[in-house]
Amino acid sequence: MADAAVIFDVDGVLLHLTPEEEDAFFRPFEDLHGLTGLSRDWDSYRTRNDVDIIAEILESHFGRPPTEVEQAAIVTAYLDRWHQDLRAGILMPIAIPGARELLAELSLLPAATGIATANLHEAARVRLDRLGLWNFVEGLAHGADGGGAKRQILARAIAASGLPEHRIVYVGDNLNDVEAGLANGVHFVGFATDPARRDTLKQAGAPLVSSNHRETLQHIRNELAI
Fold first, then answer.
1. Burial zone of 12 (CB within 10 Å; 0-12 exposed, 13-18 middle, 19+ buried)
2. pLDDT per position as a tens digit, 165-219
3. Domain residue spans of the chain
4. What pTM value is reported for the model?
5. Could you tell me where the beta strands, DSSP code E, fall in the chain?
6. Are 130 and 92 in contact (CB under 8 A)?
7. 195 vs 214: CA distance, rounded Å
8. Cα distance from N-terminal residue to C-terminal residue, the chain
């Protein structure tokens, strides 16, 4: 039985977020409501969470909070398009170099692996499954569903693990990931291939950073003594 857990952000850590994937997220707003020119800067929204971003965009459009039915229509259209475009080869997820090897090596250790992502759970599942990576993280997979900032998503994953915080490592690439890790009291590893980005993560309080997933694995082993 695993006595430790490693939880990953998805975009920027396990997968690249491609322009085509961003298009797939925003297309339903145009198809259903004629909305174009929406910000692609995820940090420009009140909460960096797909569920909350959908609600914010619709609220700005309607001038009132959207109904559950209105939000669900966007989610359904988005996921339907994802499935269609994947089958047609229009969309193809791209793994971060070394992500597959990292997950495979972790699967041999006495540690559970999972995700805490601001993506919708089903979108994350489809993308990771397409590359054969979902089976590594499905046992502890938490997404945007339920709303909230990254620290809240991570808190749900921690609670589901049943493990104490000092036996958990969270790996992320954004400032909100740093904040989530520190707020929840887990070990945090900031991942970025860009040196300037690693410096930014350090300045935000990331105690450890890695430039490739060989380094990520070593940090995980050191922090969890496995």
1. middle
2. 999 999 999 999 999 999 999 999 999 999 999 999 999 999 999 999 999 999 9
3. 5-17+94-224, 19-88
4. 0.95
5. 5-8, 15-16, 94-95, 112-116, 141-142, 168-172, 187-191, 208-210
6. yes
7. 16
8. 14
Amino acid at 213: H
Secondary structure (3-state) at 168 = strand
Burial class of residue 104, CB neighbours in 10 A (0-12, 13-18, 19+): exposed
Residue 73: closest CA among 28, 36, 40: 28
- Bridge partners of 5? 112, 168
DSSP 12-57: TTTEE--HHHHHHHHHHHHHHH---S----GGGSSSSSHHHHHHHH
Among the listed residues 217, 219, 224, the one whose alpha carbon sits nearest the alpha carbon of residue 206: 219
Angstrom distance (rounded) from CA 186 to CA 13: 17
113-127 pLDDT tens trace: 999 999 999 999 999
Element (H, E) at 222: helix 213-224
Whole-angstrom distance, CA of residue 6 vs CA of residue 99:
13
Q: Which 3 state secondary structure label does DSSP give 95?
A: strand
Question: In CATH, which superfamily holds the domain spanning 5-17+94-224?
Answer: HAD superfamily/HAD-like (3.40.50.1000)
